[in-house]
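Teaching assistant here, posting this on the class forum so everyone can see the example we discussed in section. The complex has two components, and the goal was to see what a joint structure prediction looks like when all of them are supplied at once.
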Amino acid sequence: MIPELGHLAMILALCLAAVQASLPLIGAWRGDRQWMGLARPAAWGQFAFLLFSFLCLTQAFLVDDFSVAYVAKNSNSALPWFYKFSAVWGAHEGSLLLWALILGGWTFAVSVFSRQLPEVMLARVLSVMGMISVGFLLFLIVTSNPFARLLPQSPANGRDLNPLLQDFGLIVHPPMLYMGYVGFSVAFAFAIAALLGGRLDAAWARWSRPWTIVAWAFLGVGIVLGSWWAYYELGWGGWWFWDPVENASLMPWLVGTALLHSLAVTEKRGVFKSWTVLLAIAAFSLSLLGTFLVRSGVLTSVHAFAADPERGTFILIFLLFVVGSSLTLFALRAPVVKSSVGFGLWSRETLLLANNLVLVVACAMVLLGTLYPLVLDALTGAKLSVGPPYFNALFLPLMAILMLALGVGVLVRWKDTPLKWLRGMLLPVLVVSGALGLLGAWLFGDFHWAVLATCLLAAWVVLAGVRDLLDKTRHKGLLKGIAGLSRSYWGMQIAHLGIAVCALGVVLSSQYALERDLRMAPGESVEVGGYQFVFDGAKHHQGPNYTSDRATVHVLQDGREIAVLHPEKRVYQVRAMPMTEAGIDPGFTRDLYVALGEPLEDGAWAVRLHVKPFVRWIWLGGLLMGFGGFLAALDRRYRVKVTTKAREALGLTGVQA
Amino acid sequence: MNPVRKKRLFIILGILAGVGVAVGLALSALQQNINLFYTPTQIAAGEAPQDTRIRAGGMVKEGSVSRSADSLDVQFVVTDFAKDVTIRYRGILPDLFREGQGIVALGRLNEEGVLVADEVLAKHDEKYMPPEVTKALKDSGKLPDGAAGKMGAAQ
């Protein structure tokens, strides 16, 4: 009974989404306030029904209702309760429901927190979001109903959740990622609403900015969690594979990064308006493209969901519809909102333009490498893949250029900067970062150009930030001045620090990682990078829904034991699927990583030993970027100024108090 | 031409040149880094180039996996049921590597026609078959009944 209620709630949510998509838009066009007013209650109702529907599915999982096909496919009564919970979004249907729920949540949040928006604008924004919701709910109900029953022959037990997904990382990774993907729909909706209204002004950018930043931060954290999960769960010790599905999440992040910088220019200076709109459309379109790639079965990847041509066609049509109609609208309306303010060569506008160019080019490279095999396969039937060297060769230099521009970008002023002043600011930064770069390359021994360049660039980014901080506080004194800086300023500084930290982590961990795959018999020991790994053999071990061979590896440094690791080889009983659980000793400057391969004769095992310096810095950097984003979105001005500006726009305020 | 327009022209030309260079670099990098897939039949017919990194795949032949006693060297045969290819690999095989399973290997062919692999991929699902392998089996006309359906059901 409860699954049927969930199904019904889903259909009712679709009806409300249809109302939300159509009536307020017509109301905004005709100037009918009553029709516009429908947007908000429709959004609330939609969210409530989706939440109810989601809870129904969760309940079916928690009580092991295997008459529901989706539950039977992805759960098992032996599964611990928290994995039963996360199994709700463990496969296609449920994760799509989560997607729709999050879209409903974002819509709800927009309707609640944007009370200051002009009514017409809010009506348009909510109705655009309603249209997106209609698309996804139709997709959900027509092709991927999670509540479909297996009656009358319902199985006694379920086929279990994919063991790879029975992990903490999977509980949190998809919701974060979807928060990001779906969050870009808000930026998209604002852009479309502005195009519809023909008013792309600074106020629009200010309304859209906090939403974009929050979505971007969620997406970044989601990607970081995914990378971390791959690192400890796949047993390969890698953290990024340039897998098409990873690329699918990276591309919206890159364009989103460009978007939030471009929004800053539009807000502060009123230029790049059309470009910003285009980026907002692109960010959301790439999110949809990611959905298409992951769910249509055109890709083969660890992450990809079931291959079902019908679903692929649906998303492809939806994607083409969204991209086509928004670009048409852009073509019709963009010239109306042309800007006329100029700026000098050495200005923040120019540097942010450079940032945008680099990020968009980087995204285009990734897109090319991801789609090339698909396009060629479709055209000629040739099967090929594009290797990581392609991505590394192009992506890393681009990121180096980005960091170079970043150092200048934080220091230059809006409109124009005296070159002499700029030189005076940057020269000490350059000298010191050059020295630090050399010092870094020397400290790590074993010279690599990449390490020198990265140390230099990281120091450049950090020191330019510090220099700007000193400059900002020069009148009040450092301590007093620091207290007076805004949250969005701190957010920017922390996010930029995150880039430096992440870059160091990426380059140092890949240059200095030590990896040994070898055969180890019990009692045998081997030295890797100054650490003595002693293999004590593997013992049989029984988990709640798996059996495992659990090895013990003692790690000694200078004869002293510093860690005992327990890598495991598990076999999950229901699917008879083997899984590698790595034994990891995490550290700030290095990770020790041990994974079991296959058992060999006489109790010996194939063992993979890694020493990975600074690998945590990759994720630390990513988290810093995300944290910076959240901090910036909490800035006071988004609450205070928006109110007054919006009131001004509405002509509600006579005299400012 | 007035100075403003001249400046604008230079900026646009600069951007175009930059984009051109970037696209050129991207395409050449792409050309160097694509790994074409060859079926065992194609490899046996000598269609695959030597000393270029290629992808090869098929079903691991039953009883063909042999390990060296004191190292992680392993050798096995993949087949599309028409022709076979021997693959040599040193290292840890993926969890789902087993005989009778469809796999894809990346590596270079040597003079003896043996693929020296540096990477072996087996997917994380026991019923899953890589689409390249499906194609190889289809080309050789030996696609087992229901395998295509299994591909659809795999998740």
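For the discussion questions: Residues 242 and 388 of chain A are 6 Å apart (CA to CA). The two ends of chain A are 59 Å apart (CA to CA). Think about how each of these relates to the inputs above.
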